[in-house]
Amino acid sequence: MTNKYRETLINEIIDRELNMFLAVKNRGGTSQCQELPESFRIMREMTHGVLPNSFLNSYKYDLKQAEKEGRNFMTEKYALMESLIPTISNSPQIKEIVQIESEWRKEVAAQFPRSVQPDGHESFCRYLGCELQTYSAATIIEYYDYMKSAQQELRNLVRERYELLMRKLGYASLQDCETKLTAR
């Protein structure tokens, strides 16, 4: 599959997610982050940009199914984060995925503490665990298998995500961002 196919796939996913995100009804009205859709797009591109097409296709299918069923994954994720709804999925893979990504994030935050805030670890784990609960069983397995594969290859997908984000933000790399933040 070509890079154009992948780019189109990621953009379609983000468009669907953004529609869900903008439809979230917050208790206090529209949230500040809902007024920044381009920031949302960048963060979701960071999330999906390091994942394989097999995962992306499975997740796109989940999004389409959710739309047909009148579900909003973003509403569900935030409701889970605030403990407003019960657990959606008890998949054992979710806990393991969060553990793997948690270790990766700790490594990146230790190496780049100005670029990746070490104190954001707990919220990262909660966010990821709640997001994963909105995925279908098939999509969770796709994600899990890829995490395990990356782990065996000694890759750190959290670092790869931050490298992608830093390039989007105009830095040459995560190290470039860290160096510039340290010099300030």
UniProtKB/TrEMBL annotation:
It holds the Pfam family DUF4125. It comes from the Bacteria. This is DUF4125 domain-containing protein.
